[in-house]
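Appendix B, Record 12. Input sequence as logged:
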Amino acid sequence: MDRTPSKPMAALWMAGWLALMLIMAIAGRETTRELNVFQIMEMRSIFGLLMLYPLIRLNGGFATMKTSRPLQHIGRNLIHYAAQLGWFFALTLIPLGQVVSIEFTMPIWTAILAASFLGERVTVWKISAIVLGIIGVIVIVRPAAGEINPGQLIALGAAVGLSISLAMMKSLTRTEKTLAIIFWMLVIQGAAGFLPSLYVWRWPSAYAWGWIVVIAFCGTFSHYCMARAMLYADATVVVPMDFLRVPLTAAAGWLIYSERLDRFTVLGAALILTGNLLNLKAADPVPAPAIDRATG
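Logged structural output:
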């Protein structure tokens, strides 16, 4: 059926993405204390497929997962797999707040890629939202001068990879079902990490098992939320909403790990929120995909 552009609907699906990604960051931090990231990624793919199976059955079974763009699925998911590995590795090297904050260079790359390859317009309002978001991140993190930690470079590389993955996902939503996009993500990434995960395998503790299940659920259905959000708006509208994850992560650190929520964090969060509200209110109307591919 026809899909009308709707920033409120895109924002609603992005709220699901934000919640799941926040939980996954905490789960990743806990799990990497015990397990290698290759094993975490592999178990995430296996459990993710099991969790996705009921939705696949409800939408016609595996026959409906056929794709006419296998090479783009493979390319997108190999890039995404490498970026996710980098993200998890960065969690073991630098603080959670730094990982998430560096990750938010991603909208810059996404906006450039979307404009270059998807034909999306980068308006003054979209640029303003990105600039305000970046300033907000800098205010929160307040990076000190000095040598760059290798973990910071890994996190930056992961951000670039994730932006390429998101741009490719936006292209796929024009012809592919949302479920098919997620299904092939799990299959391809599971295949890519099978041998490395066997090499580093160790039996998880009960504590790690619980967090792995959380990672699998959040990692699978967060992407479902993102793909749905992109059915309603351009990538350059959707991605800046993700800036809200920075103040949310700061709040989670305060509540869970007793990290102090100072005035800089409050100011940065206000700048990020202002940029997102500006983008949602004033972004130009965008052409929507003609067909809702989520249910066929």
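The chain has one domain: 7-282.
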